[in-house]
Amino acid sequence: MRNQIFSVVSKVNRLPILDLISPSAARAHSQEEQQGYLESQTLAQRCAREIAGFLQEGWSEKKTADLMEVWLRDHGVKAFFHKPFVWWGDRTRFNGVKTYWDYLPSGRLLCDGEVFILDVAPIYNGYISDVGFTGVLGNNEGFIKARNFLAKLREEIPMLAVEGKNLWHQIDRIIVDGGYDNIHKTYPFGVLGHRLHKNSARLNASFIHFGWQSYWEFLSRGLFGQILNKDFSGSLDGLWAIEPHIGAPGFGAKFEEILVMENGTARWLSESSNI
Length: 275
Hints:
The chain is of the alpha+beta class. The protein has a single domain (about 1-10, about 25-270), classed as Creatine Amidinohydrolase, CATH 3.90.230.10. The chain has helices at about 1-15, 30-55, 60-75, 100-105, 140-160, 165-175, 210-220; strands spanning about 80-90, 115-125, 125-130, 130-135, 180, 195, 205, 210, 225-230, 240, 245-250, 250-255, 255-260, 265-270. The chain has a five-stranded antiparallel beta sheet, sandwiched between helices. Strands 1, 2, 3 and 4 form a four-stranded antiparallel beta sheet that branches. The termini are far apart.
């Protein structure tokens, strides 16, 4: 069953989707709404940074993911777009990931010098955010170079987003030219990012690792208008969780935060970076 589910996702990942954009996908968000998204994102980033500061050699991915969820629930989160994902070492570049279940936090233990990624998408006061944070336990020169690369890429993305070209391909070129692998192309549907919408649901049930709200938000609005991949075509107006993920020898690194597209301009929702 596990392999069958992943096989279906993989096949959909290869479908041409140029003509499947939902006409209602793009819309403006008020300043009040943007403030709600910012508060959700800030809370998620606080969680990632604080938990990262607690990490010790010998902690498991599963233990860390559970701690992140407890932290967020203690701070008012009642539901998730997706619960915490945690990866150590070469799993940060998805080595050995072949099924949906391989993405989930495992019993792997963190070692000194290993890079780690914390990724979580809480729903806070109805507002969905999705953040990714990369760090390292101890020292890793390769990680410092990758972090600097991502920081520069973050500066460039708003300018790239308003050029009218496919943002996925522009970022892919920068990653490859920088000597890294494009890891987000291996994600289900090959996504670089996805739209964010205010969640009006009142139920807090979860389905597998993703909240049922995740599926509803995408499917009710037209799945392929909600994801930014190599085949995306249409307006980028709205709020997007953007997550460029690069691969270096032995590890991967990423960031994820909200990009605001409105009136022909692009900016990060928060001026401060989580890189």
